[in-house]
Amino acid sequence: MKSLQKTIEDFHEYVIGCKKDIQKEIAGPNRTFKQTRLDVYTSGYYLRLLEILANDFPALKKIVGDELFEHLGTAYLIRHPSRSFSVRHIGAQLEEFLESDASVEVFFNNEDIDLLMLLEMARFEWALESATVAKDGDQLTFAEVSAIAPEQWNSLKLSTHPSLTIHHFLYPIPAFWRHLLQGNPENPDLVINGKRTHWLIWRFNRQSYFRSVDDLQLEMIHLIQSGKDFSQICEALCEHLDEEKVIPFIAESLRVWIEEGIFSSFSVVDTP
Questions:
Q1: Under DSSP, is residue 80 helix (H, G, I), strand (E, B) or coil?
Q2: Per the CB 3.0–4.6 Å rule, which of 63, 85, 213, 260 could disulfide with 217?
């Protein structure tokens, strides 16, 4: 006789499509009855995962429609079955699936939908979802920064919040997302920009936020994340801005970013 643990493992394998020989373990008068019972669990399992995908990718679902999203989601779950007791990461490979799986071409063969736009929307929505469950950390306040002595600013180093990620899009994805889900009346033209736009995505007060940054601000964020101090950042930005414009540019960027919870902590070298 099989142990209960072994029966549970076999049932799990069956539900995710990896094993087909457990009918003998199911109570019932005949094969048809047993198969019906198994199908109820299997269908319920996939329906629940499809519901989770729809919650994680609501704009993507609106773009493709309910029926196509269900077909895509089912194909994705078959190709990338859940391997964890948590459903938190179930959508982590959806962008990769849309980009690389040959079967995706069949879904869009007669659809007037740009696959690149779907890839970018999937990336954006997964980044928003990931930010909500990312590692937690403190969020720096103006009061803490105001306490820094003027003579210590040159050695100031900032740490970004653990949830912060940086993403690049050719389509106006964040604006389109707002239009679809937040009732923004402005429907952006879905045309590819001449260059990629840069976006910060992070968590603040238990919500995901996003903000665009220009090329110089992106460089500034990279310098901060690489451990450069305030004086080194000023020196680097002087290669792109007139010297008298560097401090106001950095100060205004920091003011907005601190206000929105992008930084977690700071350090300075103590002065004698």
A1: coil
A2: 213
Q: Tell me the C-alpha distance between 64 and 124, whole Å.
A: 16
Asked if the structure places residue 252 within a domain, the reply is yes
Residues facing residue 204 across a β-bridge:
207
Tokens of 135: 């590692």
Pair 264, 139: CB distance under 8 Å? yes
Give the pLDDT confidence score for residue 93 in this predicted structure. Answer: 94
| Sign of the dihedral through C-alpha 182, 187, 188, 190 | positive
209: alpha, beta or left? (left if phi > 0; alpha if psi -120 to 50) = beta
Domain count for the chain, please give it.
2
Give the pLDDT band (50/70/90) at residue 191: confident
Quote the CA–CA distance of 18 and 162 in Å, as a whole number. Answer: 37
The pTM score is: 0.83
Q: Of 82, 113, 144, which closes a domain?
A: 113
